[in-house]
Amino acid sequence: MRINKSVFLSKIFNLNLPFFIYRKLRSSNDKSNISSRIIKIAIVSVFLGVFVSLSAISIGRGLQSSIKEKLYSLSPDITISTYENNSRGIASEKINNFHVVDSEIKTAFPDFKFENIIEKPTLISKNNSFETVIFRGVNDGYSFENFNKFILGSNTLNNLTSKEIIISKSLSDKLGITVGQNLTLYFKIDNNQRIPNLRSYTVTHIFNTDFPDFDNNYVIGNLQTLQNVFKWNNNEYASIEISINEKLKISSIVQSISSLKSLEKNNLSIKSINSKYDNIFNWISIFDFNIILITSLMILVAIISVIISLFILIFERIKMIGIMSSMGSTNKSLSKIFIYQGIEIILKGMIPANILFLSVSIIQNSYGFIKLNPIDYYVESIPFILEPMFIISLNLIFALISFIVLSITFVSITKFTPKLNINS
Q1: Which DSSP string corresponds to 308-377?
Q2: Rounded distance, CA 319 to CA 44, Å?
Q3: DSSP-based three-state secondary structure for 174
Q4: Which of 71, 27, 50 is nearest to 399 (CA)?
């Protein structure tokens, strides 16, 4: 069979020559030379850079989300009470003209969830052991939907009678109390009272929120007990708690409620969850800066490692570059040879990093092997958030930055003249 010479030569020159040379150089590399070791270091740097960056973002966002979710489950989004109550952080003083205030707020915001609360200090006695806590009285029909995630055991909490309370695990351990046992609580109505009022309750559930300030200081029961002990009417309460679905609108809603006339007339204060836990919200907002800092540093180190490894490769191939330049190869073609090498380094680091990150995230979220101190972090184990958008975005950003930097780096090839490279 006769082959057309011109067609054959055309096919040869139409081949991806830079990719062909890259493959030949790759297969002929001496595994013991310096460039080979540097390339391995660069691959490890890319691997660590991508893995640590993904982990930093996932853990940081996971902690923010977990802590916020707990705060929103434990505390109402908005609290309306007297100035004294909100300043002290305990809803113990009754709201004057409660029905007027309650009616105006519900008329203005009918879609919100409302709960009526009374809180009073009390003393727990058990086996000659005493603990001062706050009795948080909730109204009949109070929604325990969010709070049930903190209840230990399989039983869920739907309602509390006037003879039932729930306590925290920390109090349960201190007092040696288990579910089904009775507790005696002492209430003091005024300072002149010598003998406090006694009430006996049955512990129906035990909760654990990992918030020491809440677990160590609160027991939860029905507010009817407090109304009876302190001689309040059935329609008298100390606080109105409001929960909304759109958390980003809390500030604007607070301003709207503040403008209601009944609040001003009855000298009431309004407090949002953001101001109540401003120290915690400020603390977790710092995570964003830490995430950006860690991610930027890790990506920078990885890219620098890739650049250094490729510069070494270029210096090793100066004579080859000179010969190819003298034969008419363009700088663009020469650059492609080493860009392929850079892409290989990046992919060999990025792909295993993503696989390891996904594996660690799924295992950690399922079993919680890596523990945290709840006193410091409010969660028992490190939470990972797996959001496809941020995973894909980080990989694309890293690849894009790497490609741009590598392209700029290969401008240095133009400095190698054919004569100098051939004679070196």
Answers
A1: HHHHHHHHHTHHHHHHHHHTT--HHHHHHHHHHHHHHHHHHHHHHHHHHHHHHHHHHHHH--SB--HHHH
A2: 29
A3: helix
A4: 50
Interhelix angle 331-367/388-409, nearest 10 degrees = 150
Token pair 């650059």 is at which residue?
335
Instruction: Please give the structure tokens belonging to residue 238.
Output: 């100390």
Q: What is the token pair recorded at 323?
A: 């010969």
Write out the two tokens for 336: 């492609």
| Tokens at 375, concatenated | 């006193």
* pLDDT per position as a tens digit, 72-116: 988 999 999 998 888 888 888 999 999 999 999 999 998 899 999
Cα gap 159→221, rounded to integer Å: 9
Residue pair 178/127 in contact (Cβ under 8 Å)? The answer is no
> What pTM was computed for the model?
0.80
Residue 285 belongs to what H/E stretch? helix 278-316
Taking the C-alpha atoms of residue 80 and residue 52, their distance in angstroms, rounded to an integer, is: 44
Q: d(Cα 96, Cα 85) in Å, to the nearest integer?
A: 13
The two structure tokens encoding residue 354: 């993503």
Please state, in angstroms and rounded to a whole number, the distance separating the CA atoms of residues 68 and 120: 26
d(CA 372, CA 67): 13
Residue 67 burial class via C-beta count within 10 angstroms: exposed 0-12, middle 13-18, buried 19 and up: buried
Residues 6+ apart with CB under 8 A from 415: none
- Residue 285 has which token pair? 């907002």
d(C-alpha 83, C-alpha 103), whole Å = 20
CA angle 34, 40, 43 (to 5 degrees): 140
pLDDT tens-digit profile of 180-204?
Answer: 998 889 998 877 777 788 889 999 9
